[in-house]
Design brief:
Strand content of chain B: under 5%
Number of strands of chain A: 16
CATH class of chain B: Mainly Alpha
CATH topology of the largest domain in chain A: D-Maltodextrin-Binding Protein, domain 2
Number of helices of chain A: 19
Oligomer: heterodimer
Low-confidence stretches of chain A: 8-28
CATH superfamily of chain B: MetI-like
Shape of chain A: globular
Largest sheet of chain A: 7 strands, mixed
Mean pLDDT of chain B: 90
Mean pLDDT of chain A: 91
Number of strands of chain B: 2
Largest sheet of chain B: 2 strands, antiparallel
Largest interface: A-B, 45 and 47 residues
Strand content of chain A: 15-25%
CATH architecture of the largest domain in chain A: 3-Layer(aba) Sandwich
Radius of gyration of chain A: 23 Å
Number of domains of chain B: 1
Number of helices of chain B: 13
Helix content of chain B: over 70%
């Protein structure tokens, strides 16, 4: 069915291309309506409708129409609209995918606007701006960011008599604690695991651990995959040993039985994930809190990634669109985002205020901000999606327990390098 | 292979009047997209910048893309297991359902239910059946003193998804076969019974030859469905980034088009799939001329 759908969407996009040319540009003065598209869930839509209403009140001649889709449909829809040259004026962007769009010339260069508003980015965490910089300026602005931290189930730690994780924990401490927190029933079945994190995408655990062990993900000019180098292998080996020797980390088949999130299901004592998980975990039937990522032989490391907004190059209302982006970075909008609780605000004054630190979910929110001190940026380069799939798909067999670690890793690195060579 | 009644006079008018909406849909919908796909398969297109002529590069890639070749093997393996499964089991079910007993409607509905239920919802239920530690199937196996099996692990996942897909297709197959079975005049069976033919003889000598048109049709439809199978497989075996532990060609087409900015390559893969199905159809039509009996 999907295949038929695909053909259908393609035709729709062709028809839309034909219609697109007929539109006349809107008058520059007077009230304008701009369209804004993003991924998200209903709770997020509600907050964004609030932000948009606030914005309309502050700037009465601009109205923003918000459209929210789930992650997968969002990108399909966006690509179709872009190929028809009728993109929304403003749309959400995930930093790692940014260059895939920017390099294809569909985004508006915001640099001229930024030059006219030199104070606009004051007070924004510089780590969150990095991803959007290109040689000829910024084509996007962040709205919020994610750092990855260690989440732990307090009830399970208490029951096992294990001390809570601290900022000084190493990966060895993590492994030891995970072993102690693993419970095997009398029938030989594991009823509780010490740790679980998903290994498909780099963001949840593996890029952090590779950096902490002194390895890296990809070289600076994005021509060579480094996940198979000696130091990186130590981190992979650790995951492998925890999963298949200690059996304190469920393999991916087992995790699938718990809806892919054994921590939320209450069968894993620890996990590593970003702030987006907080609203979902808030409903969990156990007490939990967060701690910084553990240290490795090369120090402490986590990953920082930001979501932001870009303006379509084909937008008829670039000025109004930029006004909205500017508002998103203002204190009132950032405060609303902080209260939403899906991510960390990029405006430092809001992140460090009670709006973020004293949220409904009573956890140590400061951990997310302090993690910036040792955060590496999630890599941003053209061809990211295909490259990360080559590694994620290539290594999947290891995490189901059906493939050997080292040869499979070698193969995945080769496949990833092939992608880099072909997307130059 | 002409059969059935020929439309005459006023009937001809209605024939065309009723077919027109479908034709319009086919010409403006399907035909347009078929042409677009053919053209794009010779182009390099990332959806965002204008397509550029790529010659046969996308077709050359079909033979070099290891992931695609593996997917193709999976699609073929899936088809070989799925098509006979659907045809034989739904024929068996249809024969069982082809009798006048109390509550037969209930049974027929039960078998047809998967066809009208959301594949996503039923796949979630199958996930609960197949689970390694928490699944119902392994619970039963263990009660019987057998070793639990990892049904959705790579080695078994193919069989597990084939079973679910067959289960989902029995209903529609049953309807086709029931239509064929009810069209067989009772007299044939009665006459055979008087001559002393037992149930098996009646089935293989009378029923089976007379429903060859239904068998032919069902085989054809199942083959097309097998090449397009996606939703159950996705729900049962999905991994990150739209991948699956049993990726079939449709996964490759979808990901190349929508995740990897490779619309041209995806189009070439779609054409490849079409050519394979078309070749199979030609083979089936050849078989039809030789073996299918129309009254």
């Amino acid at each position: 069915m999907k295949y038929r759908l695909l053909v259908f969407v393609m035709i729709v996009s062709l028809v839309l291309t034909a219609c697109g040319g007929a539109k006349t540009p809107a008058a520059s003065s007077g009230p304008v309506t701009i369209s804004m598209m993003m991924w998200g869930d209903p709770a997020e839509l509600e907050v964004w409708n609030q932000i948009v209403a606030d914005f309309h009140q502050a700037t009465p001649n601009i109205t923003v129409k918000v459209e929210v889709s789930d992650w997968d449909s969002y990108w399909t829809k966006l690509k179709t609209l872009l190929s028809a040259e009728t993109p929304p004026d403003v749309f959400a962007m995930d930093a790692p995918l940014y260059l895939d769009y920017q390099s294809r010339g569909v985004l508006l260069n915001l640099q001229p606007y930024l030059d006219k508003n030199p104070d606009m980015l004051k007070g924004v965490y510089p780590q969150t701006l990095e991803a959007y910089k290109t040689p000829d300026g910024m084509y996007g602005l962040p709205r919020d960011f994610q750092t990855i931290v260690l989440f732990y189930n307090k009830d399970m730690f208490d029951a096992a008599g294990v001390a809570y994780p601290t900022a000084d924990w190493t990966y060895d401490d993590l492994r030891e604690a995970a072993k102690k927190l693993t419970v095997v029933g009398s029938d030989g079945k594991t009823t509780q695991y010490g740790f679980y994190s998903d290994l498909w995408d780099m963001e949840l655990i593996w890029s952090e651990a590779l950096w902490a062990y002194g390895g890296d993900v990809i070289n600076a000019d994005h021509t060579k995959t480094l996940v198979g180098d000696a130091k990186a292998r130590e981190a992979w080996q650790l995951f492998h040993d925890m999963m298949f020797e200690d059996k304190s980390w469920p393999d991916s088949n087992t995790a699938g039985e718990y809806g892919g999130d054994p921590f939320l299901a209450g069968v894993a004592a620890m996990t590593t994930i970003g702030h987006w998980a907080v609203p979902g975990y808030a409903d969990a039937k156990f007490k939990w809190d967060v701690a910084p990522m553990p240290k490795g032989p090369a120090g402490q490391a986590t990953s920082v990634n930001s979501a932001g907004f870009v303006v379509g190059k084909a937008s008829k209302n670039p000025d109004a669109s930029f006004e909205f982006l500017k508002y998103v970075l203002s204190e009132p909008a950032q405060k609303r985002l902080a209260e939403l609780g899906f991510a960390c605000p990029v405006l430092q004054s809001v992140a460090e205020s009670d709006a973020f630190l004293k949220q409904k979910t009573q956890i140590d929110q400061k951990v997310f901000l302090d993690s910036l001190a040792f955060a590496h940026m999630k890599p941003v380069f053209k061809g990211y999606d295909e490259w990360s799939s080559a590694i994620g798909d290539g290594m999947a067999g290891i995490w189901t327990g059906e493939a050997e670690l080292d040869p499979t890793l070698d193969e995945a690195v080769k496949a990833a390098d092939d992608v880099l060579a072909s997307s130059k | 292979m002409e059969y059935g009644l020929k439309p005459l006079g006023r009937e001809k008018f209605w024939l065309w009047a009723l077919l027109t909406p479908t034709f319009i849909g086919l010409i403006f919908g399907a035909l347009g997209s078929v042409i677009a796909t053919v053209l794009l398969s010779f182009a390099e297109w990332d959806l965002l910048t204008p397509p550029t002529w790529a010659g046969i590069a996308n077709y050359v890639e079909l033979f070099k893309d290891e992931k695609l070749l593996r997917s193709l093997t999976n699609t073929i393996k899936f088809t070989v297991l799925y098509v006979p499964g659907v045809v034989i089991i739904s024929l068996f079910v249809a024969v069982l359902m082809n009798r006048r007993i109390r509550g037969i409607g209930l049974f027929r509905t039960a078998y047809f239910l998967p066809a009208v239920t959301s594949a996503v919802a039923t796949a979630l239920v199958w996930n609960m059946i197949y689970g390694k530690d928490t699944g119902i199937l392994n619970f039963i196996l263990e009660r019987l003193g057998l070793q639990p099996v990892c049904w959705l692990c790579t080695n078994n996942a193919m069989y597990a998804v084939v079973i679910v897909n067959i289960w989902g297709a029995i209903g529609e197959g049953m309807i086709i076969f029931l239509a064929g079975l009810t069209a067989i005049p009772h007299e044939y069976h009665e006459a055979a019974a008087i001559d002393g033919a037992n149930g098996f003889q009646q089935f293989f000598r009378i029923t089976l030859p007379l429903i060859t048109p239904s068998i032919f049709f069902q085989t054809l439809i199942s083959t097309i469905n097998a090449f397009q199978a996606y939703d159950y497989i996705y729900m049962l075996t999905r991994r990150g980034g739209g991948d699956s532990s049993v990726p079939v060609v449709v996964f490759s087409i979808y990901r190349n088009a929508w995740n990897f900015f490779n619309y041209g390559g995806a189009s070439a893969q779609a054409i490849e799939l079409t050519v394979i199905v078309a070749a199979l159809m030609a083979f089936y039509l050849w078989l039809e001329r030789r073996y299918v009996v129309y009254e």
